[in-house]
């Protein structure tokens, strides 16, 4: 099911047959430089199943990014509920295949996902959890109107900056 289309991308619900591409992406060490370690195929499947359950429960989750031109797997972007430092939040995240980095695709997808979150789902705000050294991802957050809110440690060993936007801050054009 397509959620939204942008100029170059289609954001759609993940399907079971997306597993091979997802597992290949999240299993690549370079692709996951800012994560504790690459993921196994089993972990990719569990992640995929969890996101598909979010679609049923909340109407949203992380969506598959697909090129509109070539109908190829680009990565993922979307929103999901999570507990962060004891507070229930809605996380926004994005991840683009390394062969497609530096083309503005993450920003294009994140802007569309932000707008869907704030307008269609009427969420009051979003957070992005970004490794302190992941400058490219920090730039994406800033391009879509998110602001660095604070630093924290995730699971005791992942130094992160928490970026935040609200319906007011995240208005188009910010």
Which features does this protein show?
single chain; 174 residues; Aminopeptidase; five-stranded antiparallel β-sheet; three-stranded antiparallel β-sheet; 34% strand
Would you summarize the structure shown here?
This protein is α+β, with helices and mostly antiparallel strands. Helices cover about 30% and strands about 35% of the residues. It is globular.
Describe the structure.
There is one protein chain. Helix content is 29%, strand content 34%. The protein is of the alpha+beta class and 174 residues long. It has one domain: Aminopeptidase, CATH 3.40.630.30. It has a five-stranded antiparallel β-sheet, sandwiched between helices. The protein has a three-stranded antiparallel β-sheet with strand order 6-8-7. It is globular and about 40 Å long. Residues 169-174 have low confidence and may be disordered.
Strand and helix map with partners:
Layout: E1 2-5, E2 9-12, H1 19-26, H2 41-58, E3 62-67, E4 73-84, E5 87-96, H3 105-120, E6 125-131, H4 135-143, E7 147-154, E8 158-166
Antiparallel strand pairs: 1-2, 2-3, 3-4, 4-5, 6-8, 7-8
Helix pairs in contact: 1-2, 3-4
Radius of gyration: 15 Å
The CATH superfamily is known as Gcn5-related N-acetyltransferase (GNAT)
The largest sheet, given as strand count, sense and whether it forms a barrel, is: 5 strands, antiparallel
Number of strands: 8
Provide mean pLDDT, rounded.
93
Second-tier CATH architecture: 3-Layer(aba) Sandwich
Oligomer: single chain
Instruction: Pick out the low-confidence regions.
Output: 169-174
Q: Any idea of the CATH topology? A: Aminopeptidase
Order of helices and strands: EEHHEEEHEHEE
State the share of residues found in helices, binned by percent.
Answer: 25-40%
The order of strands across the largest sheet is: 1-2-3-4-5
**Count of helical stretches:** 4
